[in-house]
Amino acid sequence: MALSLREDRNGGSVDHFLALLQDRLPLWLRILHDLSHRAGKGRVSDNLLPVIRYGIDYYLEVQSAALPAFTSPNVTVRFREVVRGLELGPRSETLPLSAYLKAEQRLGRVAERVDPEASARLLLAGCFRHAYNELFFGADSVPPRDTSAEEIVRELRLES
Fold it and tell me: Which residues pair with 110 in a beta bridge?
């Protein structure tokens, strides 16, 4: 991925972003995939809270590095191409989360009215939005991260 994006660049914000992404993305995806082992155990909201809380931290850290890296349209276009080729786009995050919600739905622990795919997108969007607001407006302008995680999970009203 790094070589595809760097081309003629030597270090700087793109390298910092790629190093951070290479370090953090595997753990983030593993956390999402590990939810599948929680289906049928504990409460759904209790299973989701640490995931959403980590998601806020993940997006805050990655966004702060991405903003200076994507000032060039060429870098942005190359990044999109590389991510597509590696199948690391948004669906790499929503698929494991929606699979968990579907499993819980089959067990009767998530309401039938819930759309697992849309709910997965909304859960992740809540993480991203909190991180974005904290990054731009400061931590004192948003609820604490734990509170936001609780609100995100609670307000989707997933459980039966």
Answer: 159
Question: Torsion-angle region of residue 10: left (phi > 0), alpha (psi -120 to 50) or beta?
Answer: beta
pLDDT of amino acid 10: 52
3-state secondary structure the chain: CHHHHHCCCCCCHHHHHHHHHHHHHHHHHHHHHHHHHHCCCCCHHHHHHHHHHHHHHHHHHHHHHHHHHCCCHHHHHHHHHHHHHCCCCCHHHHHHHHHHHHHHHHCCCECCCCCHHHHHHHHHHHHHHHHHHHHHHCHHHCCCHHHHHHHHHHHHCCEC
Identify which of 123, 110, 125, 113 has the alpha carbon closest to the alpha carbon of residue 150: 123
CA torsion sign for 8, 11, 17, 21 is: positive
pTM: 0.83
* Residue 94: Cβ-neighbour burial (10 angstroms; 0-12, 13-18, 19+): buried
CA distance 85 to 131: 27
Question: Can you name the residues that pair with 159 across neighbouring β-strands?
Answer: 110
Mark the ranges of the chain whose per-residue pLDDT is less than 70.
Answer: 1-11
Residue (of 67, 45, 63) closest to 123 by Cα position:
45
